[in-house]
């Protein structure tokens, strides 16, 4: 049976269309990104609830904040690379500092745009968004989690950043209820005894593949899907530190100040543990398909299993 | 309030603002005095908003994009009863909400500003929401002329026109000076009138410290489908001779002698105005 799920963008569009039909204050704002955001069905169904600002990401964020201040519930959808870099000062001032109910949706995130180059990659977005006070940060890992997360966001009054990718995601969960419960709650997907693998977004499937490989080598790995990069499930990290001789984080992000760093901060505060951070190195990413690039940087089931064996031997 | 009363109010508030800056030893004296008349015309004359209606969804909105001219705004809001005047004794002190830029933890402040180039786009969002909801409130925003160098201003100028926001009025405090010198020398954004007209705005040019002209411009019926820009030719430091038209007074604090001279001027004006 195929485990193939759906593109996160298409799931987002379905949920937002349904929510916006129920609540006319739910809006989608795009920066010429309705196509790349898989939002054409929303635009066709609810043209009055789609606000197009053109290729102007700073304006996208600030206009969203002005709308939110007037009672609207805007989802500002734009490529993650531009949304979190070009507009970051608008995010800081108009969204987080003013506490505006704006949902910032970074599409085609991480290395999704692969061969388009570093202009289009968002491999530092977590570093900057998780440092902003008053901003929740999420990375859904499959269609069910994406749906549950967007339903939560449509009813939440807090600012949030969500990064989704372009890939058709494998199903990780059986249903929405299992996939997402609340901010700051991570899910344990697989319980093992030797090592804990911690991931979020598209690398959750990579972590599961690594765990399977490790099982074949005689090791049993726990796999954690963070979902909520901020707030972080610190209670679970504390528990993992106490329970396992080694932890690994796996992320589609620079190894600087991403998920690994967030976990490392908690691990250090908790007295320390052996931790290996797998992610993109501190350099512009090499060209290639996303799978080729992941493999090149060792973000791959076989390589991660090998690294885990090294840590444990 | 008639125009004469508005002028008196402007003098009173210039005096209160100078007093606050002198006492706290911080503030943007020249910027405050430049736009005092505009704020008085809005808050005491034209805008449909009071302390009592600040949470009413139909209130007119004011977003001060040139957030650094906050000392005059704090004094206007206090005088209009948004919070007790005595609160302003804490201005710029530890843990005070009355800081050096507008702060939405204070009653009367819509959105946080201070970083330039945000107010116009915020106002576009607020005015667009009014159109979507069929509300009749009007949105006002005040920018500086130095601020026109921010690219985000022009993104927002384009959007306001694209969305046909005739319920939005932007005012440029066009005093020709910014922190480093003359605006035309630092980064020449002129001709602003032609630029905004080219962006699809209806532009009204006025002498920006002339109360009658300000009120008339603000009360002019908007052109259907177009946002309005009031290009207010102002004098930086207006009302205090030694500070007028001097870039260094952007954020300079008066000495004891200068403060006394300013007080004397304001007191004389208030005395004459009361006759």
Automatic annotation (TrEMBL), chain A:
<dbReference type="InterPro" id="IPR051157">
    <property type="entry name" value="PDH/Transketolase"/>
</dbReference>
<dbReference type="InterPro" id="IPR005475">
    <property type="entry name" value="Transketolase-like_Pyr-bd"/>
</dbReference>
<dbReference type="Pfam" id="PF02779">
    <property type="entry name" value="Transket_pyr"/>
</dbReference>
<dbReference type="InterPro" id="IPR033248">
    <property type="entry name" value="Transketolase_C"/>
</dbReference>
<dbReference type="Pfam" id="PF02780">
    <property type="entry name" value="Transketolase_C"/>
</dbReference>
<feature type="domain" description="Transketolase-like pyrimidine-binding">
    <location>
        <begin position="6"/>
        <end position="172"/>
    </location>
</feature>
<dbReference type="InterPro" id="IPR029061">
    <property type="entry name" value="THDP-binding"/>
</dbReference>
<dbReference type="InterPro" id="IPR009014">
    <property type="entry name" value="Transketo_C/PFOR_II"/>
</dbReference>
<protein>
    <submittedName>
        <fullName>Transketolase family protein</fullName>
    </submittedName>
</protein>
TrEMBL record, chain B:
<protein>
    <submittedName>
        <fullName>Transketolase</fullName>
    </submittedName>
</protein>
<dbReference type="Pfam" id="PF00456">
    <property type="entry name" value="Transketolase_N"/>
</dbReference>
<keyword id="KW-0786">Thiamine pyrophosphate</keyword>
<dbReference type="InterPro" id="IPR029061">
    <property type="entry name" value="THDP-binding"/>
</dbReference>
<comment type="similarity">
    <text>Belongs to the transketolase family.</text>
</comment>
<dbReference type="InterPro" id="IPR005474">
    <property type="entry name" value="Transketolase_N"/>
</dbReference>
<feature type="domain" description="Transketolase N-terminal">
    <location>
        <begin position="10"/>
        <end position="251"/>
    </location>
</feature>
């Amino acid at each position: 049976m195929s485990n193939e799920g759906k593109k996160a963008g298409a799931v987002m569009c379905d949920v937002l269309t349904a929510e916006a039909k129920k609540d006319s204050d739910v809006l989608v704002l795009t920066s010429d990104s309705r196509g790349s955001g898989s939002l054409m069905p929303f635009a066709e169904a609810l043209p009055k609830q789609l606000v197009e600002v053109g290729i102007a990401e700073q304006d996208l964020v600030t206009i969203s904040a002005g709308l939110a201040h007037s009672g609207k519930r805007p989802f500002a959808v734009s490529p993650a690379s531009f949304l979190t870099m070009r507009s970051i000062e608008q995010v800081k001032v108009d969204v987080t500092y003013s506490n505006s109910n704006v949902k910032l949706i970074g599409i085609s995130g991480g290395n999704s745009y692969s061969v388009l180059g570093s202009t289009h990659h968002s491999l530092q977005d977590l570093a900057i968004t998780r440092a902003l006070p008053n901003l929740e940060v999420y990375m859904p890992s499959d269609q069910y989690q994406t749906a549950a997360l967007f339903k939560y966001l449509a009813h939440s009054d807090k600012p949030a950043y969500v990064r989704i990718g372009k890939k058709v995601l494998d199903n990780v969960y059986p249903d929405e209820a299992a996939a997402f419960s609340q901010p700051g709650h991570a899910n344990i997907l697989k319980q093992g005894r030797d090592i804990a693998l911690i991931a979020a977004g598209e690398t959750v499937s990579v972590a599961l593949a690594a765990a399977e490989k490790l099982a074949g080598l005689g090791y049993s790995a726990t796999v954690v899907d963070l979902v909520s990069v901020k707030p972080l499930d610190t209670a679970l990290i504390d528990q993992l530190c106490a329970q396992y001789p080694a932890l690994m984080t796996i992320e589609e992000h620079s190894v600087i100040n991403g998920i690994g760093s967030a976990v490392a901060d908690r691990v250090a505060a908790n007295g320390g543990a052996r931790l290996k951070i797998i992610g993109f190195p501190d350099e512009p990413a090499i060209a290639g398909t996303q799978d080729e690039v992941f493999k090149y940087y060792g973000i791959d089931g076989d390589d991660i299993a090998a690294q885990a064996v090294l840590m444990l031997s | 309030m008639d125009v004469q009363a508005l002028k008196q109010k402007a003098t009173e508030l210039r005096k209160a603002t100078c007093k606050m800056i002198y006492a706290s030893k911080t503030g943007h004296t020249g910027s405050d005095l430049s736009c005092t008349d505009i704020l008085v015309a809005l808050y005491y004359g034209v805008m449909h908003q009071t302390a009592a209606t600040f949470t009413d969804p139909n209130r007119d909105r004011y977003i001060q994009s040139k957030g650094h001219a906050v000392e005059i705004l704090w004094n206007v809001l206090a005088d209009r009863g948004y919070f007790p005047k005595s609160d302003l004794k804490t201005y710029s002190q530890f843990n005070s909400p009355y800081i050096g830029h507008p702060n939405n933890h204070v009653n009367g402040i819509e959105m946080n500003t201070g970083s330039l180039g945000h107010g116009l786009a915020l106002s576009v969002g607020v005015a667009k929401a009014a159109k979507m909801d069929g509300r009749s409130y009007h949105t006002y925003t005040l920018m500086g002329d130095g601020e026109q160098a921010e690219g985000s201003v022009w993104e927002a100028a384009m959007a306001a026109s694209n969305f046909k926001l005739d319920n939005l009025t932007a005012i440029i405090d066009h005093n020709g000076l910014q922190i480093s010198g003359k605006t035309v020398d630092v980064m020449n954004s002129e001709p602003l009138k032609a630029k905004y007209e080219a962006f699809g705005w209806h532009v009204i040019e006025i002498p920006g410290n002339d109360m009658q002209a300000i009120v008339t411009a603000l009360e002019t019926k908007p052109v259907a489908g177009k946002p309005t820009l009031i290009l207010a030719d102002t004098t930086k430091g207006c009302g205090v001779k030694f500070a007028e038209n001097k870039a260094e007074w952007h954020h300079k604090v008066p000495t004891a002698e200068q403060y006394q001279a300013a007080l004397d001027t304001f007191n004389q004006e208030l005395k004459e105005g009361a006759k």
